[in-house]
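> call design_seq(struct)
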């Protein structure tokens, strides 16, 4: 009897999980007529409620995709059981998207972003340096200065309002209520409710998602500026920046093909001057004529840490799970040595035994 019950439970779990999976797969079928009907309904209503969102999408690469339009439902469909999901006009959707959603179509980019310094930028919010800044430069009654300051770039933990049992509170429309102290938040290192790190719209403006916007120097400069990280000011006064702005004045808005959709390759599409993305992320023609791919891991091409008084040379280490670490250059790399086992979250660690081993 117990065996029959166990089999029944497994049977039910299999089909409920399959249904959730089917929903996701169905929503990502850009040629599915059912999805097209749903998206027509979205557009009809949102043209009345917030027309600018629709116009942004209509002029986006998603709308112009040759293999089929990537519409509202493609991205906003929610899986059954998703805390962020809710029924809206007969469709189960979610408003807030994360890199996990973008990864359904852009898996390499999301994977690179997920192990980058950008994705971990929000972790500094738990540091002693930040705690000191909040107390000394902050406001005792609220965190308005953090919203308009640090979180705008670094991000923070995005939270839902919950009841005493930990379940999300719902609005009249059944949408989950956001904790207003953590939302809105487009900081590049924000920690999302689904556990993912980062947010693509920090660089790619939502609903238009144009790569031409992401590769503009000003896009990086909105965060990388000021006395503690003056990369914007350094670039603008450098030969690179001067050459770029000169080309913009001479050739107009489309200088260096910077407004081009899709791939933007140094040595093919342009040659006049580099932007931030050219060196840190961009594709380029190699000496043998082949094209080096771009990268969404902005730390892959950085060899020096400039935060310290004396700059530190870095050795970049990539682990088997694709996480990365920067090892100071004065520590020589060790060959033919097995990597140390990485700690498992939640597992107890015998610190005393580890210290004795080191001694």
């Amino acid at each position: 009897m117990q065996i029959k019950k166990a089999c029944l439970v497994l049977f039910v779990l299999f089909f409920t999980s399959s249904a959730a999976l089917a929903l996701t797969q169905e929503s990502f079928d850009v040629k599915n007529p059912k999805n097209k009907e749903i998206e027509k309904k979205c557009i009809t209503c949102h043209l009345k409620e917030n027309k600018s969102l629709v116009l942004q999408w209509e002029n986006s690469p998603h709308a112009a995709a040759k293999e089929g339009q990537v519409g509202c439902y493609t991205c906003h469909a929610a899986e059954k059981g998703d805390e962020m999901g809710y029924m809206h006009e007969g469709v189960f959707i979610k408003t807030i998207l994360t890199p996990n959603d973008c990864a359904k179509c852009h898996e390499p980019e999301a994977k690179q972003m997920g192990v980058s310094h950008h994705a971990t930028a929000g972790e500094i919010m738990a540091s002693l340096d930040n705690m000191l800044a909040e107390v000394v430069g902050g406001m005792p009654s609220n965190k308005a200065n953090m919203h308009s300051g640090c979180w705008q770039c670094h991000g923070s933990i995005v939270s839902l309002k919950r009841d005493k049992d930990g379940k999300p509170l719902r609005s009249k429309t059944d949408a989950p209520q956001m904790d207003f102290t953590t939302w809105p938040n487009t900081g590049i290192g924000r920690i999302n409710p689904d556990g993912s790190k980062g947010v693509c719209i920090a660089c790619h403006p939502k609903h238009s998602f144009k790569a031409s916007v992401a590769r503009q120097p000003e896009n990086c400069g909105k965060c990388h500026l000021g006395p503690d990280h003056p990369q914007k000011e350094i670039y603008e006064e450098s030969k690179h920046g001067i050459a770029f702005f000169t080309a913009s004045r001479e050739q107009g808005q489309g200088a260096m093909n910077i407004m081009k959709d899709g791939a933007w390759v140094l040595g093919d599409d342009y040659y006049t001057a580099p932007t931030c993305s050219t060196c840190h992320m961009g594709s380029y023609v190699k000496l043998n004529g082949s094209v080096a791919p771009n990268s969404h891991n902005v730390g892959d091409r950085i060899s020096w840490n400039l935060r310290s008084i004396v700059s530190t040379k870095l050795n970049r280490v990539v682990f088997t799970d694709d996480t990365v670490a920067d090892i100071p250059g004065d520590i020589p790399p060790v060959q033919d040595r097995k990597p140390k086992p990485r700690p498992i979250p939640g597992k107890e660690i015998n610190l005393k035994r580890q210290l004795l081993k080191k001694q």
